[in-house]
Amino acid sequence: MLAQLPPVLQSLQLPLRLKLWDGHAFDLGPKPQVTILVKDPQLITQLTHPSLDELGAAFVEGKLELEGSIAEVIRVCDELSVALLKDEEDDQPVRTEHDKATDAAAISYHYDLSNAFYQLWLDSDMAYSCAYFKSATNTLEQAQQNKFEHLCRKLRLQKGDYLLDVGCGWGGLARYAAREFGAKVFGITLSQEQLKLARERVKAEDLEGQVELQILDYRDLPQDGRFDKVVSVGMFEHVGHANLALYCQRLFGAVREGGVVMNHGITSKHTDGRPVGRGAGSFIERYVFPHGELPHLSMISARISEAGLEIVDVESLRLHYARTLEHWSNRLEAQLDKAGALVPEKALRIWRLYLAGCSYAFAKGWINLHQILAVKPFADGSHDLPLTRADFYR
Question: Is NADP found in the keyword set (predicted)?
Answer without folding.
Answer: no
